[in-house]
Amino acid sequence: MTQEQSTFYRRAFGTATAAALGLALFWILEPFAGALLWAGLLALLLFPLNERLCRALRGRRSLAATLLTVGTVIMIVVPTLVLGALFATQAAGLARAAQASAAQHQIQSPGDVANLLDDLTLKVGDWLPIPMEQVRASVLSAGEQLAQWALSFGGMLAASIVNTVVSVIVALFVLFFFLRDGEQMVRRTVALIPLDDRRKTRLVGHLADVTRAVVLGSLVTAAVQGTLVGLGFALAGLASPIVFGVVAVGAALVPMVGTTLVWVPAAIWAGVSGHWGTALFMAVWGVAVVSSADNVVRPLFISSRAKISTLPVFIGLLGGIAAFGPIGIFLGPVVIALALALFEFAEQARAEQG
To answer: Closest Cα partner for 173 from 70, 98, 249, 262?
Structure first.
């Protein structure tokens, strides 16, 4: 075998082996991808605190990682239990109110729901420049889809709860090792990047700043908007403000629509029920207070902490959700920031060579 053939064989064998190992690793890690990514995000957010704790404990990284992991469990579990108890209490009250409303409107079967929706479309149709038959068909179709979704929701909810619990346990287990060995993992990974040390440092710092800014900005904004929605429900005298406040926190993470998924239906329901003052209050509160909070809180965290404009963050949010699911809210902007940083480095290298 000639030297050229030997070199080709080694390269081909190395490429095939790397591809096979990469595919095997993907199959092994894919079921835990979400948990690993959440653990990585938590470790990145806790990195400054972890470093200070390590120094205070004289370099005992295992002890520092254990204390932070236990602290994270307490910070997650205790508020979740308290909020869950309040949520369950108000959800039970909401269910009783729904039952009372069903009895009041003599709803005993899906056909009764269809008749009620039909009556509602007749009232709403007077306000719309759309043929009545088209409105009725659309509303009844939506009602049927909602009923089918409600029937399957129980099974999906049970499976979702089990998957969430397993993912949380795996993420917390992995978090300990990321906190203990994360700095060494990052150092070894960064050493493989074909950039000079100055650009490597800038790249790692930029990605860390963007990640922290996007995660904190999104979570704090969602918490603030959810709190404001719950407060609006309480001030308006609407039922279950905690339930709808918690729902609004999740809705706030959805780009473009956000908390309008919660307070707009509440305003419409109040108006249809004849409570026009409540409907007007919820509309004004939603637009002037809840939606405005997004324009104040999010830029305060993202623009002031990371050198990245709003457009890449917005595109990253939308594309990230489509590509990666819920964690794409945070991962999408980071990927966009990485691409922009590498593009900037390529421009600089070309200018230096020219």
So the answer is: 70
